[in-house]
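Task: sequence design from structure.
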């Protein structure tokens, strides 16, 4: 059976619908006005300042092993990948031709020395005879010239013999430094030359290691000032001491020393390359690893730290945060950050002051200019969890109000 409502009844239903909608709107407005947000009151605290500089490790020494003479390798006398000592024989090049050259030069020297033994008394005798005019002046000059020539021949033969001795010694290729040696690029039987560019092997010294890091020229200047005023921890030589963070995030057992090795600013990046010397007795560090050098820069007695979740970044990358003012209204602040602390907090250098209340949770339910109910961060979890059910309740009431006229009309 179809039910028709009179005009009077239809007017009443319309009024009821409008009233319910207005009530729902009032409830939403009321819910928005009483929205609770979790806040943390800013307090200045002592904070140990530090800067983390990323970089890669390089060997303290890298020494290529190259032949100094030409010849055939007879033996390889080391274990690839092992530790070798400075002066240790690594390769033996066939010494036979160099031994023969040494023996020949030695014989030439002995021959020249024998000639000198004969020329010296002749020259002395001719000097005595020339003093009494027993011989001509030309005869004396010839004898002295022969003596000087024999002496010069001896000097030349000595130099040739020394060169032959050096070349003979070069047939024993020794390690120039102590370190870990790479795989050999040549095997016994291979011909090597004195002027080749390819090394036979390469020796790396891993203790200590270099860590090359980069820092902006502005930050380097600030660090130098902190070193000058004594706020940065230094060693006995006045070099800044640094802690090393490994690739897995753990702290390395040994502290390094920061060396200001940069001699200029990179014009494209505005950075300076600095060098850290890191002890590596356990050989834990290897060349090419990506590490961080953490430089402690003193203690700021009035530092401001805020939770990371309370800070957002706009489209330009600027840091911002929501603040609840004395009238419980929400405002937005622009912040200047100086990095992160160890407990997931931002270090704020500008934009906040002692006593400011920063929104740490519930900011999605509040906009700039809204009046809110600030709940201290200790109760923030409850405030945040209660906010969503409250909005859900308001939405449910609105939905119920919207369906009421339809139900009335169907009746």
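Answer:
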């Amino acid at each position: 059976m179809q039910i028709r409502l009179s005009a009077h009844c239809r007017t009443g239903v319309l009024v009821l619908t409008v009233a319910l909608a207005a009530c729902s709107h009032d409830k939403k407005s009321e819910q928005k006005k009483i929205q609770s947000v979790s806040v943390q009151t800013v307090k200045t605290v002592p904070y140990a300042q530090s800067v983390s500089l990323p970089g890669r490790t390089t060997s303290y020494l890298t020494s290529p092993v190259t032949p100094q003479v030409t010849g055939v390798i007879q033996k390889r006398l080391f274990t690839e990948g092992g530790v070798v000592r400075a002066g240790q024989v690594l390769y033996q090049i066939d010494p036979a031709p160099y031994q023969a050259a040494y023996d020949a030069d030695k014989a030439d020297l002995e021959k020249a020395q024998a000639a000198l033994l004969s020329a010296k008394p002749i020259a002395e005798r001719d000097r005595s005879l020339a003093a009494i005019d027993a011989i001509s002046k030309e005869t004396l000059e010839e004898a002295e010239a022969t003596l000087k020539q024999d002496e010069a021949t001896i000097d030349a033969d000595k130099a040739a013999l020394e060169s032959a001795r050096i070349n003979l010694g070069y047939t024993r290729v020794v390690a120039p430094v102590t370190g870990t040696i790479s795989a050999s690029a040549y095997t016994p039987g291979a011909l090597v030359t004195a002027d080749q560019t390819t090394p036979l092997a390469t020796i790396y010294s891993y203790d200590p290691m270099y860590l090359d890091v980069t820092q902006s020229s502005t930050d380097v200047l600030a660090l130098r000032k902190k070193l000058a005023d004594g706020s940065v921890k230094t060693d006995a030589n006045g070099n800044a001491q640094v802690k090393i963070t490994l690739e897995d995030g753990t702290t390395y057992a040994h502290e390094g020393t920061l060396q200001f090795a940069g001699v200029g600013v990179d014009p494209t990046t505005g950075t300076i390359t600095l060098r850290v010397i890191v002890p590596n007795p356990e050989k834990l560090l290897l060349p090419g690893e990506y590490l961080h050098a953490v430089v402690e820069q003193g203690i700021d007695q009035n530092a401001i730290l805020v939770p990371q979740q309370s800070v957002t970044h706009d489209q330009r990358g600027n840091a911002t945060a929501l603040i609840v003012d004395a009238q419980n209204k929400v405002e937005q602040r622009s912040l200047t950050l100086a990095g992160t602390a160890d407990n997931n907090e931002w270090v704020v250098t500008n934009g906040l002051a002692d006593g400011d209340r920063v929104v740490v949770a519930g900011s999605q339910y509040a906009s700039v200019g809204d009046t809110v109910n600030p709940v201290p961060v200790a109760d923030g979890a409850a405030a945040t969890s209660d906010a969503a059910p409250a909005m859900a309740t308001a939405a449910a009431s609105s939905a119920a109000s919207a369906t009421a006229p339809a139900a009335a009309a169907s009746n």
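Confidence is low (pLDDT under 50) at residues 379-411.
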